[in-house]
Every structure is written in structure tokens, then in C-alpha cells.
Recover the amino acids of this structure.
């Protein structure tokens, strides 16, 4: 059996939109017919795992049939968060082995911080996707800029973490391993063109220096968050499934996600696997 692709959603800063991005990528893969296993390493919050629990409950209550991921058991997250690193890593290893035996793709959502679990996940990644807000506050974890000139000075702490993950893979596998790293600017505002231009210039310089690709950005849309209580994303909406009023903005959000999936190389998930959605029928 071929080894599953491992996608890690990572950024050491909280509030960057990791879980929101994770659930959309997973849902797109599920609609493309992939067997997807999810591992949520944000032990206390577990937003991604709770999202899919909501999904199972909502679809059962409303008589719909939507694909669900494989969720390996890591036990009580709050209790595990208080355990020592050895116990946490043992639980992760067991969950990873279970996912590896059953899935085409393993997607791991990591916490906002440098933890042993996050480092272990990054060390197994084939692809890392890093969402960051459209802000120099978020960019600071990727690269340091001069406070006077705003010129890029050097890579910052999260870039160093990815470099360590790449080194770990090369050492453990005894060969040169390429971890594809994509940085996605999240919650793009309509205005703030000058700030975005400055930020994009620094990102492109840093991308060449530390080796990441800049993926297509996602606008700041309520749409990406409003479906969370139902366990749904824009990929699930159809002329039959619409717990909220559907507008052209939902159609635009679908296209944004298709663009991202295509940039990730997930062409099957970026294709036409989503159900037809007629905004005029809302």
C-alpha cells in the first residue's frame, strides 16, 4: 500500500486561521473521494475534531449523507494536555499509525506554539500549509524586518522550525527530502493595499531565502466561519443543503478554495467534485 500524503497545517502564532483552513481542505479532499484521516494536536480546543463531530450530528438530524474523515483516537484531549511529553508523543504515534494504515491523506492541525507534538508532526510532513493574517504582526514569525527601513533582515522562529523539520526528515530517512511549504495570506481585507504591497514584497524575498511558495490568498469572509456550528463548509453547500442563505459570495469562496487546492497540487479536490450551487435559488 502506498504511503499516505501527510499535510500539516502549521504556524506558531495563534489566531492565524489554521483550523478554519484545515476543515476546508479536509472537506474538499473528502468530496474528491479521498480517504482522509485527521489528527488534531490542539489538545485543549480541538476545533477541527469538534467541527466533524458537529458534521456527523447535523447530517444525521437532517437526513443528509456527507463524507466524514477517519478520526484516530487520542483520548481525552484536556487530560493529555496535562500529561508529560513522552505520553503525548506515544498517543500521537499510535494515532498516526492508525491513520497511516487507513487513509490516502493524513491532515494534522497543530497548535499555535512550539510544542513537542507540533515538532513531531512537522517532522513527518510532506507538505506544510501556513496561514497568516494580512499583517506584519503575523509575518514576524516568518521573518524579521528592519524597524526603520522595513527591509527583510533574517528568517524568524517559525521559518527555523520548518528548517529543523526538513533536517529531521533528511536524517531519519537517510536521503534528501523535500517538504513542500506553502504560505497562504488569510483574511485579506478589501482595503489596505499599501500595507499588502509592502508585505507581499517581503514575503517574496523571504520565500526565495527559506524555500516556501506563496499560495493564493483568502478574503476575510464570514462565510468561512458561519457554517462551523453545522459542521459544513462551502464545499458542502448545494441546492438541497443550505442551512444559511446562499449568495454569490459563497460561490466566490468556493472558487478561492479551489484555487488553493490547485496550488497545493490536490487537483482532484480542486476539480468539479462539489455539488451544483445556484445562488439565485437562495
Amino acid at each position: 500500500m502506498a504511503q499516505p500524503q501527510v499535510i500539516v497545517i502549521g504556524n506558531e502564532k495563534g489566531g492565524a486561521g489554521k483550523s478554519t483552513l484545515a476543515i476546508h481542505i479536509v472537506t474538499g479532499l473528502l468530496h474528491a473521494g479521498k480517504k482522509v484521516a485527521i489528527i488534531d494536536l490542539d489538545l485543549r480546543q480541538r476545533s477541527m475534531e469538534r467541527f466533524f463531530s458537529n458534521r456527523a450530528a447535523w447530517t444525521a438530524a437532517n437526513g443528509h449523507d456527507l463524507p466524514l474523515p477517519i478520526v484516530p483516537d487520542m483520548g481525552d484531549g484536556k487530560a493529555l494536555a496535562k500529561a508529560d511529553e513522552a505520553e503525548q508523543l506515544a498517543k500521537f504515534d499510535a494515532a498516526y499509525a492508525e491513520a497511516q494504515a487507513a487513509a490516502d491523506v493524513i491532515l494534522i492541525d497543530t497548535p499555535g506554539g512550539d510544542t513537542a507534538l507540533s515538532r513531531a508532526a512537522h517532522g513527518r510532513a510532506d507538505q506544510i500549509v501556513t496561514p497568516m493574517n494580512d499583517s506584519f504582526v503575523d509575518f514576524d514569525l516568518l521573518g524579521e524586518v528592519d524597524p526603520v527601513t522595513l527591509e527583510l533582515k533574517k528568517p524568524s522562529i517559525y521559518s527555523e522550525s520548518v528548517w529543523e523539520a526538513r533536517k529531521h526528515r533528511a536524517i531519519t530517512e537517510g536521503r534528501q527530502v523535500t517538504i513542500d511549504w506553502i504560505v497562504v495570506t488569510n483574511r485579506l481585507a478589501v482595503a489596505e493595499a499599501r500595507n499588502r504591497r509592502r508585505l507581499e514584497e517581503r514575503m517574496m524575498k523571504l520565500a526565495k531565502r527559506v524555500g516556501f511558495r506563496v499560495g493564493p490568498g483568502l478574503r476575510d469572509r464570514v462565510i468561512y466561519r458561519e457554517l462551523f456550528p453545522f459542521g459544513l463548509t462551502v464545499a458542502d453547500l448545494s441546492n438541497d443543503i443550505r442551512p444559511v442563505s446562499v449568495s454569490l459570495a459563497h460561490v466566490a469562496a468556493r472558487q478561492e478554495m479551489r484555487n488553493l487546492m490547485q496550488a497545493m497540487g490536490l487537483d482532484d479536490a480542486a476539480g468539479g467534485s462539489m455539488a451544483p450551487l445556484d445562488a439565485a435559488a437562495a
User: Anything to note?
Assistant: The mean pLDDT is 88. The first strand starts at residue 5 and ends at 9. The radius of gyration is 19 Å. Strands lie at 5-9, 36-40, 105-109, 127-133, 143-145, 152-155, 180-186, 213-215.
